[in-house]
Design a protein that fits this description.
With about 400 residues, the protein is an alpha/beta fold. Helix content is about 40%, strand content about 15%. It has two domains: about 5-250, Type I PLP-dependent aspartate aminotransferase-like (Major domain) (Aspartate Aminotransferase, domain 2, 3-Layer(aba) Sandwich); about 260-390, Aspartate Aminotransferase, domain 1, CATH 3.90.1150. The protein has helices at about 5-10, 35-45, 60-70, 85-95, 110-120, 135-140, 165-170, 190-195, 220-225, 235-240, 245-255, 255-275, 295-300, 315-330, 360-365, 380-390; strands at about 75-80, 100-105, 125-130, 145-150, 175-180, 195-200, 215-220, 280-285, 310-315, 335, 345-350, 370-375. Helix 3 runs parallel beside helix 11 and helix 12 (about 255-275) crosses helix 16. Belongs to the trans-sulfuration enzymes family. Keywords: Lyase, Pyridoxal phosphate. Pfam families: Cys_Met_Meta_PP.
Length: about 400
């Protein structure tokens, strides 16, 4: 791939109201109109550049949305107050009672719970498949299938989704494909690979500071207009708006994302290679031993590496807890959920971020009771960090 998301962000010029090099923060929930007709036209969605009410659009969120759309290569984007808001609003905008969704059984626990437990209450059916098996995906298609939903790199088993292959299956069936790219911003450009919509938890790598919760939806002008429609737009009516101050902060952090992703990838690859040499059971897409290593290499924007996420299998929860305790005591990082932070974070997935998935399903999908997911940090001396990890193992 020749895509360079960082260059697309760099090419945007966004000035503050008084010529500031940072866009101004709009500390206002509502906006004035000089004429009543203009207000009415804005309500109807016909006035480009006019702001009505901050739950609908506000300048700070629009600046961030434009930068994210540039990064993803989509026409537009919408900012939400969490990653789950991005996922749920997108799906609910596309699906109605009686529709069907195909998704990966390996997915973030909150997403799994929404798809498995919440959507059936509204007569929306969901089929869970091995997303790496395209024949299984095809066999799950129904006449009422509206979406194939997947994570670009799945949480926590780090499977790589074949977006071009999945997109062909979806589009041949007049369905849409939606991709959660939270683990791998800039590393992959799913919209360029065929995805119709890309969603993010910006809480993670995009913001990179673990100081706020936020999400994003990237897609066509038509879809974003539908989401924000005052009459039936899911995002507008459910109201998961992000505070402008947080939006402004994320926008500034977005401009360092390319540097951070490269360092996350460099550090994770170093640790993964060293652990593999020790015969530790490890999952990392940058290792030739990973089942989808070649696919990842084929689809990625190569200058950004293989990402900061890896997982090791310590077989039992007891062993995982012992090692994680030692690692925190050794100041390797923190025993905490979430990811994309400048310090290394680690957690036992089956008993934390994937705990919504029933134990029997975890076993079927290959999620070990002792799987520890690492979000590798930005440490300058990664060899020293590895030596500490080695001592804990």
């Amino acid at each position: 791939m020749n895509s360079d998301p960082a260059k697309r962000i760099f090419d945007i010029q966004q000035f503050g109201e008084f010529g500031g090099v940072n866009p101004s923060i709009t500390d206002s929930s509502t906006y004035t109109f000089l004429e009543g007709e203009t207000m009415e036209e804005t309500f109807l969605g016909h006035m480009e550049g006019c702001f009505l009410y901050s739950r609908h659009w506000n300048p700070s969120n629009k600046f961030l949305a434009d930068a994210l759309a540039a990064m993803e290569g989509t026409e537009s984007a919408w900012i939400t107050s969490s990653g789950m808001a991005a996922i749920t609003c997108s799906i609910l905008q596309l699906c109605k009672s009686g529709d069907h969704i195909i998704t990966s059984v390996t997915t973030y626990g909150g997403t799994y719970a929404f798809l498995k437990n919440w959507l059936p209450k509204y007569n929306i059916e969901v089929s869970f498949v091995d997303i790496t098996d395209l024949e299984q995906v095809k066999n799950a298609l129904r006449p009422n299938t509206k979406i194939i939903y997947t994570e670009m790199v799945t949480n926590p088993l780090l499977q790589v989704s074949d977006i071009p292959g999945l997109a062909k299956i979806a589009h041949d069936h007049q369905a849409k494909i939606m991709v959660d790219n939270t683990f791998t911003p800039m590393i992959f450009s799913p919209a360029e690979l065929g995805a119709d919509f890309v969603v993010y938890s910006m809480t993670k790598f995009i913001n990179g500071k673990n100081d706020c919760v936020a999400g994003a939806i990237c897609g066509s002008n038509e879809f974003i207009s539908q989401l924000s429609n005052v009459n039936d737009g899911t995002a507008m009516l459910l109201g998961p708006v992000l505070d402008p101050l947080r939006s402004s902060s994320i926008l500034k952090n977005l401009h360092t994302l390319h540097l951070r992703i490269k360092q996350h990838s460099k550090n994770a690859l170093f640790i993964a290679q060293k652990l593999e040499e020790m015969d530790v059971s490890i999952k990392y897409t940058g290792l030739p031993s990973h089942p989808q290593h070649e696919l990842h290499t084929q689809l990625m924007n190569k200058q950004y590496g293989y990402g900061g996420m890896l997982a090791i299998d310590l077989e039992t929860e007891k062993r995982a807890n012992e090692v994680m305790f030692k690692m925190q005591q050794a100041n390797i990082g923190y025993l905490a959920v979430s990811l994309g932070y400048f310090r290394t974070l680690f957690s036992c997935s089956g008993h934390s971020t994937s705990s919504e998935i029933p134990a029997e399903v975890q076993k079927e999908m290959g999620l070990s009771d002792g799987l520890v997911r690492f979000s590798v940090g930005l440490d300058n001396d990664i060899e020293e960090i590895f030596n500490r990890i080695k001592s804990c193992l």
